[in-house]
Structures are given as C-alpha cells and as structure tokens.
Design goal:
Number of helices: 9
Order of helices and strands: EHEEEEHHHHEHEEEEEEEEHEEHH
Strand order of the largest sheet: 14-13-12-15-16
Strand content: 25-35%
Structural class: alpha+beta
Radius of gyration: 22 Å
Number of domains: 3
Largest sheet: 5 strands, antiparallel
Length: 307
C-alpha cells in the first residue's frame, strides 16, 4: 500500500496516483485538511499510525472553522496544544523513516537563508545577500551594486475590505530609498544578477531533470518568471546541466537531507551558474509537460519499487 499525503487540490499528485493505478499498485491518499491521527506513547512502544510513502505537500491543519467559533484565548490554547501534537507527528515520521519520499519536517522548516549557506559550502556561486533593519546598511549595499532586489515568498493577505498580493521579487534602486524608514522590519535583499536564462531543476533521488526558461525578452517576466504572461508565454525547453553542476546539486541535496525538491538557478551571460533556492515540495507538473520528462511516471515507479 502506497500512502500519499497532499493538499486537496494538487493536480501533480493525482497524475502520480494515475500511474500507480496503471501499474496495478494500491494507494491511500490522505488530505492535509482532514488529518486522522492516533498516537501512543508508553514504556513498551511509541506508535504513530500516520505512515506515508510519499509526502507531497501541505501540513496537518487544525479545523479552522472550529477555532473561529471559539473565544480568542481558548482558540490560542487549542492551537498551542495542536502545534505540539503536529511537531511530534512530524518528528515520529522523520525518525521512523515512514516517508519514502519527501519530508514533513523539511517542507515546514525550509529556510532559504540556510540553503544559501549550504549551496556556497558545496561550491555554488550565490547572490550576495543581506538581511537588515537599517536604512543606512541598505544604502551601503545598494551603492555596491547598480540594482538590488528585495525578496520574499509570493503571498496573498486578506482583510475584510482588501486583498493584498505580494509578487515575490522587486527591483530596488536609489530612488526607492526614500520609501524606507531609518529602521524597518528585518528584510532580505540580494544583488540583482543579469540572466541569460533561468533554470528550474526537479530533483529526485540523485537525478536532475532540468528546464531552461527564456524569461529575459519579456519585461513582465524578466525580474521574476512567476509573473506569468499568459498572452506571450515564456519559451521552456529541456536543458542538460554540466556534470559538475549536477554533482554540486547532489552534494547540496545530500547535505540538506533532501531526497526530492525543485531548485531555481540562473545562467548568467558570462556562462556562470548561480544558485537561488530550493523548494522541498516544489511544483513539477509544468516542467514535466514542457520537457516530456514524465516525472509523474518516474515518481510512481520509485514509490512502487520502494513500497
């Protein structure tokens, strides 16, 4: 039995399940928003009945409808208790090696700042970066480069009147300094690196499947290809990484204790490969379709062999 843990609308997950069914395998899919948990701790045993062969994405979520009906103090208390149970469940699945592919713990605790340090340690070039609260330090960093970027995760924030969308990456120039107070919330800035192409790599068990993204001729996608232009989409084609880059990726993933993930890199006009980040449960469906990699079949085959 192959157990799959994913959010309720993950199309990539459904495609892998189709391949498992095609090969005659049995599966049980568990949705993130409806966790079923039974835990036992005693002198004789420690038992956790969540045994997933593939952690795809998501986290164990408390019933938000229930929490919204409770007084704030009680809701905070229940959320605090749930966090302890959630962390213990992640701990048990990690330490008992119940998950054959993917990781609750790595996804929930993924830290791009640590990832940059590991990438540097295995020999990758990385963008120079700072995290600062100081306008003076920001101005000093900006004076070193003609342009820098401010980075963050793509985020939707909503209140009763408005929906706020943050796109993830924006250019900062000297004309933007006036917008900053002398001291501000800790913010992540990087040097802006010119790109020849962007590269997305899906990694699974020491195999790299790479795609070149020609994002630079479109002003909408030039800074961040995630600002998709559906009317004039970027050209995406299969890409073969040099062997030395693939070996560095393997070293990085092993050192990060990751057996799968999606990696973003840049190839500069000078032919230099620059590491940006890794997402332990990044999307692979579009890469698979554009490059005819059949990654869903690759994952299904791996799970069937390991189960």
């Amino acid at each position: 039995m192959i157990e799959v843990f994913s959010s309720d609308n993950d199309k990539s997950c459904f495609k892998v399940i189709d391949w498992i069914s095609f090969y005659g395998g049995c599966f049980l899919r568990k949705q993130t928003n409806t966790p079923q948990i039974n835990l036992r701790i005693s002198n004789e045993e420690q038992n956790c009945t969540i045994k997933n062969s593939w952690y795809r994405n998501g986290s164990l979520n408390l019933n938000t409808k229930l929490s919204s009906l409770l007084p704030n103090a009680l809701a905070r208390h229940l959320n605090s208790e749930w966090k302890k149970i959630q962390d213990f469940t992640y701990f048990k699945t990690e330490n008992k090696s119940e998950i054959k592919l993917g990781s609750f713990f790595k996804e929930i605790n993924n830290n791009k700042y640590i990832d940059l340090c590991i990438a540097r340690d295995v020999g990758f070039v990385i963008p120079e970066s700072i995290i600062t609260t100081s306008k003076r330090e920001l101005a000093s960093f900006l004076s070193k480069y003609s342009e820098i970027i401010v980075k963050g995760d793509v985020t939707n924030l909503e209140d009763k009147d408005n929906l706020y969308f943050y796109q993830g990456t924006s250019i900062i120039g000297e004309n933007n300094l006036a917008c900053f107070e002398d001291s501000f919330f800790p913010t992540f800035f990087q040097e802006y690196i010119r790109k020849e192409i962007e590269i997305r790599i899906f990694y699974i068990q020491k195999k790299c499947f790479s795609m070149a993204i020609f994002s630079q001729k479109n002003l909408k996608t030039k800074i961040d290809f995630r600002n998709y232009d559906l009317s004039i989409p970027n050209r995406n084609i299969p890409y073969v990484l040099p062997e030395e880059v693939q070996l560095k990726i393997i070293k990085f993933m092993v050192k990060s204790d990751l057996d799968t993930g999606s990696i973003d890199m840049i190839l500069t006009p000078k032919g230099e490969y620059v590491f940006l980040e890794v997402n332990p449960s990044g999307q692979f469906d579009w890469l698979s379709q554009n490059c005819n990699y059949y990654l869903e079949q690759e994952i299904a085959n791996y799970l069937l062999i390991e189960s």
